[in-house]
Design a protein that fits this description.
alpha+beta; Phosphoenolpyruvate Carboxykinase, domain 3; 2 domains; 4-stranded mixed sheet; 8 helices; 12 strands; about 20% strand; binds zinc ion
Length: about 350
């Protein structure tokens, strides 16, 4: 009989005494599976779906074939995504920094110049938005839109609309329950941070005419008001570049941008125009589609910069755009008025 100092047999990988990072993963998988057993004994059916997803990960960590095991980093990433999706799906509470209490009517709350933003922590809201405006704007676009001047934040208001917030939370729960989304490729600009990677929830800009703002703050963004002649369908368009969103605002007078929480879920990346598209759930199997749509459907359309078949500009797409087709999948949280100085 072999004596294994410092080793407990049931935690050992089958390839023992050979040891590697893969055998460490096996041992971790055993520990995590036991923790899941404790969880089940203690909480019964609660979060059963999430537990089954976690069991799938621990099962692969304990594969007999060491090459089939995920690495520790991969395992941790999967577990983090599952847990954050569970948190998103169960959390309908309003952001902690809102002033309106649950049940109170919708309000547009002015954000003071020195109010600290809660993401990323430490910056003032005005400072963060001013920096994002400048950093996500092409020089040529700035010159075209502001001449020799620079864009400047004139005011910031926060929409605290409990009804729209609930609608958004329900959409987020539905998206989270459909499984984990793959990361956006290429990543969204850093100025527009991810809120929840499990359903690709991001902060993105939406530009609109001044006369539309009040209706959006009351009723939310509405895909039914989108025009079918949009290049990528009758959806709601967002960008991680302020100059693109500003193209949709008024050319004269104060320009309005909405900084929205947006659920991109599982995007469809197009290299073609998609005029008349009403929903990414049933993308047409047209011959000019370069990426086959997934059978399960998609939640959004992403257009990366570059050549686009059918684009009126022979150089194709200059800015990156994100299109959703369900207004419930966006929450317009900040109204930023932009002026030139
Ligand atoms: Zn631009």
């Amino acid at each position: 009989m072999t004596t294994m100092v410092g080793t407990t047999p049931e935690f050992m990988a089958p390839e023992f005494p050979e040891s590697s990072t893969a055998s460490d993963v096996f041992s971790l998988g055993v520990v995590c599976a036991r923790l899941l057993d404790c969880w089940e004994q203690r909480f019964g059916q609660e979060l059963k779906d999430e537990r089954n997803l976690l069991r799938d990960v621990t099962g692969r960590m304990q594969s007999r074939d060491k090459d089939a095991r995920p690495t520790a980093v991969e395992s941790l990433e999967e577990v983090t995504k599952i847990l954050s999706a569970a948190q998103a799906s169960s959390d309908r509470s309003q952001p902690s920094y809102w002033q309106q209490l649950p049940g109170q009517p919708s309000a547009k709350v002015p954000v003071a110049r020195d109010e600290i933003l809660h993401w990323p922590a430490g910056q003032t809201t005005w400072g963060q938005f001013s920096a994002a405006l400048k950093q996500t704007m092409h020089d040529s676009c700035r010159q075209h839109q502001f001449g020799d001047c620079s864009p400047s934040v004139r005011s910031v208001e926060r929409l605290e609309n409990p009804m729209l917030w609930q609608r958004y939370c329900v959409a987020r729960e539905r998206m989270a329950s459909s499984g984990l989304a793959s990361p956006i490729n290429p990543p969204v600009r850093l100025e527009n941070p991810v809120i929840d990677s499990s359903c690709n929830e991001y902060w993105l800009w939406h530009g609109t005419r001044h006369h539309n703002v009040e209706a959006i703050l009351k009723e939310g963004l509405d895909e039914h008001l989108s025009l079918l002649d949009g290049l990528y369908g009758a959806g709601i368009y967002f960008s991680d570049e302020a100059c693109k969103a500003l193209q949709y605002s008024d050319a004269n007078g104060p320009r309005y941008l909405l900084l929205c929480r947006v659920l991109l879920g599982r995007p469809y990346y197009t290299r073609n125009i998609l005029k008349t598209l009403r929903s990414p759930k049933n993308l047409p199997e047209r011959g000019d589609l370069l990426q086959r749509p997934e059978a399960a459907g998609h939640d959004s359309v992403i257009v990366n910069a570059g050549p686009i078949q059918g684009h009126p500009n022979p150089n194709g797409q200059v800015h990156r755009e994100f299109v959703i087709f369900d207004g419930a999948c966006a929450y317009p949280e900040f109204v930023v008025s932009v002026d030139k100085v």
